[in-house]
Amino acid sequence: MKGKVCYYYGKVSKPMELKKLKRPGFEEIVSCFDSDSGLKALIAIHNTRLGPALGGIRMFPYRSEDEALQDVTALAKAMTYKAAAAHLKLGGGKAVIFGDPLTQKSKPLLRAMGRFINELKGRYISAKDAGITTADLVEISQETQFVTGLPEASGGSGDPSPWTALGILEGIRASVRERLGRNDLTGLRVVIQGIGAVGFSLAELLHREKAKLILADVHRKALERAQQRLGAESVSAESVYSVEAEIFSPCALGGAINNQTVSKLRSPIIAGGANNQLADELRHDQELFQRGILYAPDYIVNAGGLINIYVQDILKEKDPMPWIKKIHETLLEVFSLSKERGIGTAQAANQMTEEILT
Asked: End-to-end distance of the chain based on CA atoms, in angstroms?
């Protein structure tokens, strides 16, 4: 398909404009603009070899289409690897909506997003990501059946964030066992960067494990809530990297480990829920490896939410925990491969996952 093609959906008074984009290694990338609702969005399908592409919808005030395209493609590829590493019969995809979720989100916009998703006829299955709530998914589901993570009252498995946090906890346990030779987390200092849905759920779990929490977030209300509930310390967003702790857990947006921050790290373990934590994967993976910092690859650690959706919404089984607990053993395999081949853990994880995809 070349150029812009207009599709008419039911009662929509004006056409929705769809445009195919191309990027090497991707099966399909489609941009959308709906003049009635103001929706501007992208959906990227990276790989469907193992099954339909499943991935969340993110709403963010991107500064340009290039910035959004870079984000959606990186996230879609990570979803392919995440599903494969977790041995799920799913492919990788992602969707992004241009706009501030606090001021620009509307029901017409969400309904238009549902129609956009529906046009892909199940090759992309949507879920929740930053800027999108379960209530938003309900609105989207009025226009398409290809939605997961709906509230239980709507027949879905609910918010995947707590399950993501449980997976991160398994990742932290495996990392502590590997790097510190311990099987418990009592008294260990954990710096959590980002106290959103996943970060707060993780903080609650670690609090129960008697870890010492040090929290950072650009949103003061989220930080104050966590401090009050958990009695945690807090640090500024700028100083979070240089805090001395056993574990640094990035749970905000991607690229936390970059050229400016990697040299500041004072934790022997990195294990968190953010996607695409290494801004330059090859370079920063190698630098962490050379410094003796154990990096738990993000797409393995944060797979708990995806696993829950797969088990409850797709397989229609009740308990995803046996699947989520496998994150622990998968990470130990990655760490072993890293030592055996003398490569960073991100590279080791990629090699292991690519064998599954071939």
From this structure: 28
